[in-house]
Amino acid sequence: MNFEEYFNPINIDELGLVADEKQIRLGQTILTFCPESDFPALNNVDLAIIGVMEERNAYNNKGCALAPNQIRKYLYNLFPHSNQAKIADCGNLIIGKEIEDTYTALADVVAELLRLRVIPIIIGGSQDITFANYKGYENIGQIINAFTIDSSFDISGDPEEFNSKAYLTAMLCREPNYLFNYTHVGYQQYFIEKDTLALMNKLYFECYRVGMIQENLDNVEPMVRNADMVSVDVSAVRQSDAPGNGNPSPHGLYGEQLCKLVRYAGMSDKCSSIGFYETNPLYDNNGQTSHMIAHAIWYFIDGYLWRKHDFPYKEKENYKKFYVSINDNTNTIIFYKSKKSERWWMEVPCSKDKMVKYERHYLIPCSYEDYQTALNDELPDRWLMAYNKIMI
After folding, report:
1. Is 251 in contact with 238 (CB distance < 8 Å)?
2. Torsion of CA 213, 214, 219, 222, to 10 degrees
3. Which of 273, 63, 237 is nearest to 150 (CA)?
4. Domain-embedded: residue 311
5. CA-CA-CA-CA torsion for 256, 146, 105, 301, nearest 10 degrees?
6. Separation of alpha carbons 264 and 290, rounded Å
7. Mind listing the pLDDT tens digit for each residue in 61-105?
8. Is the domain of 65 the same as that of 123?
9. What pTM, to 2 d.p., does this model score?
């Protein structure tokens, strides 16, 4: 793929990068596609930033297309990490004449980056761009787990409706479907129709209210660790922390809680793409929201640098293995505990014919509490949902 044909270069001078030889900024460590330079070689790159200035399907949030460069102004001026990841900035995706052209182009780019084992960091734009990110996995035939941080479910009862508040319908209805599991955190009950929540439960998807996850944010870590693709809608953050959005709420996550969640995503060996959407500079207060998203991206990179590479497909001697019998030996759950990170996984029974299809999904991240639940002769909810999906 000739990546250069898909992107407009970035004018570094417009980002206001602080020039100080004694104090190097993050932007000085990023291989940026600029008018005066060639497109960066991606062969040995870990992460690739992609701006998508697309808002034609934005719901009540015109102006979010201005976000990518505004977020870069803050991101580039942060100080780099003590260990440096190899980061490229591909520039801003060339927007198609029709919005479907934009989706197709981004899907092609994401698919190629996944083949190169480069993690795309997508900066939107409206959240319907998540659909194009998903199509990138579809292009390479990879069944995935998706994880969304949002104040509402972007789903519609009308299969023909498609916008940033209804894109999930298209993902669920596509055939063949490459979505194994969907996890949604941070939703606010008063934004959710009762029938929609019932549908999510019927599909064995994991959905958690903002109040539930705020009680113990660490309980979300196994859910994020199970995700291939992460999508962040800034409206999940309360308006006082993130005013730059056309659909704000006075309640929601705090900015530092968002940063913690995306750091968990960065730490996951499984997470291979992430997108940040719906930031709107026209509604912002002194760049507050763009600055917060820049911090979140910094924390994702920080999490990436802390990866332990201990997903249980690796060397088995690096794990402690526990067998727990439940209901008078009706079920036996095998748990794995990493000696490197102290993190837990549990194994879901899977026949040989289905293991080819679900080889990345029958070992699911869990917590010590799930292990305790099994010791108390109960099936953990997370195990039961995964089992039901595999057995369908």
Report:
1. yes
2. 60
3. 237
4. no
5. 40
6. 21
7. 999 999 999 999 999 999 999 998 999 999 999 999 999 999 999
8. yes
9. 0.95
> What spatial distance separates the first Cα and last Cα of the chain, rounded to whole Å?
38
Same domain, 355 and 214: no
Assign residue 33 the CATH number of its domain: 3.40.800.10
Residues 6+ positions from 328 with CB-CB distance below 8 Å: none
In the beta sheet, which residues pair with residue 321?
Answer: 336
Report how far residue 190's alpha carbon sits from residue 187's, in angstroms, rounded to the nearest whole number. Answer: 9
Written as one string, the DSSP assignment of 13-68 is GGGT----SSS--HHHHSEE--TTSPPPP-TT-SEEEEEE---TT-SS-TTGGGHH
State the residue for tokens 């808002």. Answer: 55
Q: Does the N-terminal peptide bond of residue 176 adopt cis geometry, omega within 30 degrees of 0?
A: yes
Residue 318 pLDDT class (50, 70, 90 cuts): confident
- Residues 168, 19: Cα–Cα separation, whole Å: 43
**How many angstroms separate the CA atoms of 334 and 364, rounded?**
11
What's the distance, CA 7 to chain centroid?
A: 22
Neighbours of 159 (CB within 10 A): 11
Same domain, 210 and 257: yes
CA distances from 35 to 3, 48, 296 (A): 14, 18, 28
Beta strand 363-366 with 119-124: parallel, antiparallel or unpaired? unpaired
